[in-house]
Design a protein that fits this description.
Number of helices: 9
Strand order of the largest sheet: 8-5-4-3-2-1-16
Oligomer: single chain
Number of domains: 1
Helix content: 25-40%
Bound molecules: zinc ion
Shape: globular
Radius of gyration: 18 Å
CATH topology: Metallo-beta-lactamase, Chain A
Largest sheet: 7 strands, mixed
Number of strands: 16
């Protein structure tokens, strides 16, 4: 499996900035998990291949690139872009984004080839097939309804928490898997902002240590994502000071193969 956390911004030399303002993870160049920077940072191959976009929750940093990704492709789509989400996320998107005021309701529009957007609702806890992947959404503990995902192709399995405060079911499901090649976990704020982290349902390095301790299996690397750019240096330092084996920061823009 190939996985890439798309860049949010770029350095002056064109290289990806390590600062993650937005979330969009692309698997096998063909399925996007969240669409924060999808319209802005995907490759031409990804733009022509991605027709399935899985949304964990409707916070702006996870959906900002969704309307523009569809807009950029509008006249060329020969099949609809499928938005996979829970019923509650679909409701938020249709009411607050694709409402003819913020942006067109693409689900009501067609081009020369037919519909341009199709919603595919998933049920948290149930396996679903998406473009050759097996995907299991699992509810996590965020300020709004939100899911983590367990994703498998023919070769590998990756689990990602998405945005979450301390959570339980996700770790139990990961422990029950036959094999896991990588776990992606969030950690947004440094420890001194524990109150903000708690009220916004995110995690700090201290919370991350307790969270990782819930995982009984010790056979896979754990990568941290979703570090708020404003506190990146401090948060990264505190994560590294945990000195946990197998714990790394996921590099923005790098292609991981598992
Ligand atoms: Zn969020």
């Amino acid at each position: 499996m190939k996985l890439q956390l798309l860049s949010s911004t770029f350095e002056k030399d064109g290289s990806p900035s390590p600062r993650q303002h937005l979330t969009s993870l692309v698997v096998n160049d063909s399925v996007a998990f969240d669409a924060g920077s999808l319209a802005f940072a995907c490759t031409d191959i990804q733009r022509s291949s991605i027709r399935d976009i899985v949304i964990s929750h409707a916070h702006l940093d996870h959906i900002a690139g969704l309307p523009l990704f569809i807009d950029d492709l509008f006249s060329t789509l020969t099949e609809p872009v499928r938005i996979h989400s829970s019923a509650s996320v679909k409701e938020v998107l249709e009411t607050h984004i694709f409402n003819w005021k913020v942006y067109p309701r693409f689900s009501e529009l067609t081009n020369d080839f037919g519909p341009v957007v199709e919603y595919v609702e998933f049920e948290p806890g149930s396996d679903t097939r998406i473009a050759g992947l097996s995907v299991t959404p699992i509810e996590v503990n965020h300020l709004v309804p939100s899911c983590g995902f367990i994703i498998s192709d023919d070769l590998s399995t990756v689990a990602m928490t998405g945005d979450t405060a301390p959570t339980e079911a996700f770790w139990k499901r990961v422990d029950g898997l036959n094999s896991v090649n990588a776990v992606l976990v969030e950690c947004a704020f440094p420890d001194r902002l524990a109150d903000l982290s708690e009220s916004s349902h995110h995690m700090t390095p201290n919370g991350l240590r307790d969270e990782i301790a819930k995982l009984r299996r010790r056979d896979c690397p754990i990568y941290v994502v979703n570090i708020k750019p404003a506190y990146r240096e401090e948060t990264v330092r505190q994560i590294l000071e945990l000195n946990l084996p197998r714990l790394e920061i996921l590099e923005v823009g790098r292609e991981y193969i598992w």
